[in-house]
Design goal:
Layout: H1 3-21, H2 36-44, H3 51-107, E1 120-127, H4 138-149, E2 154-163, E3 165-166, H5 168-184, E4 189-198, H6 200-205, E5 210-213, E6 218-220, H7 232-238, H8 262-287, E7 302-304, H9 305-311, E8 316-317, H10 320-328, E9 333-335, H11 342-358, E10 369-370
Family: Belongs to the peptidase S49 family.
Protein name: Signal peptide peptidase SppA
Keywords: Hydrolase, Membrane, Protease, Serine protease, Transmembrane, Transmembrane helix
Length: about 375
């Protein structure tokens, strides 16, 4: 190998090293453009060139092509690494933001306990179905009631209700807490019904000192309901065998795949009647002699606000804004309902979905104080 070949090899290695470090420009897009004919002549050689010279030219052309290919590959790798780094930083930013939000909600979102200095209405929201696994659950409502009750600048505690009812037990727990606070006589407790305050929601409202509703609000539905289906014929037609084992002859008497006999139906009706009696007695204790002497009052019917005031189910027609102006001179209130824990809600939903998927029965009471 002559001196020129050594120089050429060193030059090629230097170009490869520069391309690996990214120090050389991309030959695919930069540098002087070579016309197709010139390229062909460079590969074909010139007249009089020896075979060895032609082979050397072809070898150099191949090496140059390889240089360009390696340079392109390295450029694409650098570009890919940059995008990977960008997306990793983006993902890290999202994770940090979510963690910060959760920490803020858990440790800093709750009020510090200092009520607003100006006089106001202390609101506690009762929205949606009343149930242990719903936002309107007894624990959350009771916690809000006590926080509102302890606020010195609160002119009144207001239960802001928009609910069709729900669990008898959850409703009874809230009712008992309102009656306990009401007996202390420190400040009035007022229920304001929006679109609907029926069944279990009215059960809660009846414990308040006063009930306010709009003329078109739906109020009442003082009754108890159990609803189910009978699939015994359907399961026979499908050829499915139902396997239920119990200890206790009546343990599965509400099984929808078995017929409900007369004795079981009669027993279940006594449970409904007893729960209904509890409902009636508590409403009477809360409303007193304001209730009209009407035999349909506890029949489960639901009335408009305009009808309800004639029956003594509510005390006044109005809205939250009107109540605030009458009590504190302007429409000002503060929400004392505890904020919802996002992880708790996610866990509850996941548990319910998993139970439904696995066919596991949840432990909710089949009885409902709910408008249908």
């Amino acid at each position: 190998m002559n001196h020129d070949d050594g120089n050429n090899d060193r030059s090629r290695r230097r170009r490869l090293d520069d391309a690996a470090r990214g120090d050389t420009p991309d030959r695919w897009t930069q540098g002087p453009e070579v016309a197709p004919r010139a390229k062909h002549e460079a590969l074909a050689g010139r007249p009089g060139d020896s075979d060895e010279t032609l082979r050397e030219r072809q070898r150099l052309a191949q090496i140059e092509m390889m240089d360009r290919w390696i340079g392109g590959v390295l450029t694409e790798q650098r570009r890919t690494r940059r995008w990977k780094l960008f997306f990793r930083l983006l993902l890290l930013s999202v994770v940090v933001a979510l963690v910060s939000l959760v920490v803020h909600r858990v440790y800093f979102a709750e009020p510090s306990g200092a009520a607003p200095a100006q006089e106001h209405l202390a609101l506690v929201e009762v929205h949606g179905v009343i149930a242990s696994d719903a936002p309107a659950n007894a624990e959350r409502i009771i916690q809000g009631l006590n926080r509102a009750w302890e606020a010195d600048s609160a002119a009144a505690v207001v239960l802001h209700i928009d609910s069709p009812g729900g669990s008898p037990v959850q409703s009874q727990r809230v009712y008992a807490e309102i009656m306990r606070l009401r007996e202390q006589g420190d400040k009035p407790i007022i229920a304001v019904i929006e679109d609907i305050g029926a069944s279990g929601a009215y059960y809660i409202a009846s414990a308040a000192d006063e009930i306010v509703a709009s003329p078109a609000s739906l109020v009442g539905s003082i009754g108890v309901i159990y609803a189910g289906f009978g699939f015994q014929e359907a399961i026979d037609r499908l050829g499915v065998e139902r396997r239920v084992m119990t200890a206790g002859e009546n343990k599965a008497f509400l099984d929808p795949f078995q017929p409900l006999d007369e004795s079981s139906a009669a027993f279940w009706q006594t449970v409904l009647a007893q729960t209904h009696r509890q409902f009636i007695e508590d409403v009477q204790a809360g409303r007193g002699d304001r209730l009209a002497d009407d035999e349909t009052l506890f029949s489960g019917l639901v009335w408009s606000g305009e009808q309800a005031i004639e029956l003594g189910l509510i005390d006044e027609l109005g809205s939250l804004e009107q109540l605030a102006r009458a009590r504190v001179g302007k429409a000002v209130w503060e929400d004392y309902t505890p904020s919802l824990d996002p992880f708790d809600r996610l866990t509850r939903r996941f548990t319910s979905a998993a139970a439904a998927l696995l066919g596991i029965e949840v432990s909710h009471s089949p009885l409902r104080f709910e408008a249908r």
